[in-house]
Amino acid sequence: MSNPTKIGIVICDRYRRCAGGKCLRALNNREGAFSRYEGQDVQLVGYTTCAGCPGGNVEYLGDEMVKNGVQVIHLATGLLVGYPPCPHIETFKKFLEGRYGIEVVVGTHPIPQNYFTTHTSLGSWDGEKWLTVLAPTMADEAVRKAYD
After folding, report:
1. What does the pLDDT look like over 5-22, one tens digit per residue?
2. Residue 137 above 70 pLDDT?
3. How far does the chain reach from its first CA to its final CA, in angstroms?
4. Which of 42, 81, 105, 108 has its CA 20 to 30 A from that of 65?
């Protein structure tokens, strides 16, 4: 067995009771932002919330995850699809990468169609910045519908 890539997931505190079903399904199926691990072994070694705006747990969660061998932290898709989308995503990414020297990926599971439709009509993802941020979690309509 090869050495697995060890990952951690940070979810939005609005979803603190989330059981992680969509994220874990996407991880197992290598969909959404987890498609980058196609053909690789991956081990989830951390799962926590940001602790609410403005992300009070972000300063500390990396310590535990790094102790557990995390190589990549994923900021969950919930940070993108909640309304409004998390205004701190870029700050979290920059902080975690800078402090811990590890890669941070925005996204986990594919964006569900119902969120895609809502945010498209509201214009919450308008602008060049969002094209890049959403890219790892964007999928075709059939996959998005499967995550509704």
Report:
1. 999 999 999 999 999 999
2. yes
3. 34
4. 81
pLDDT, residue 2, reads 77
In the numeric block, which tokens belong to residue 45? 């070694």
Q: Are strands 103-106 and 42-49 parallel, antiparallel or unpaired?
A: unpaired
Q: What three-state secondary structure class fits 1?
A: coil
pTM as predicted: 0.95
Cα 73 from Cα 25, distance rounded (Å): 17
Overall size of the chain counted in residues: 148
Tokens standing for residue 6: 């060890």
Amino acid, res. 145: K
**Closest C-alpha among 45, 68, 61 to residue 13:** 61
Residue pair 77/137 in contact (Cβ under 8 Å)? The answer is: yes
Kindly state the tokens that stand for 133. Answer: 């941020």
Q: Looking at beta carbons, which pairs linking 85-92 to residues 24 or more positions away fall under 8 Å? A: 85/119, 85/124, 85/125, 86/12, 86/50, 87/53, 88/50, 88/53, 88/54, 88/55, 88/58, 89/133, 90/133, 91/55, 92/10, 92/50, 92/55, 92/58
Cβ–Cβ contacts within 10 Å for residue 19, how many?
Answer: 8
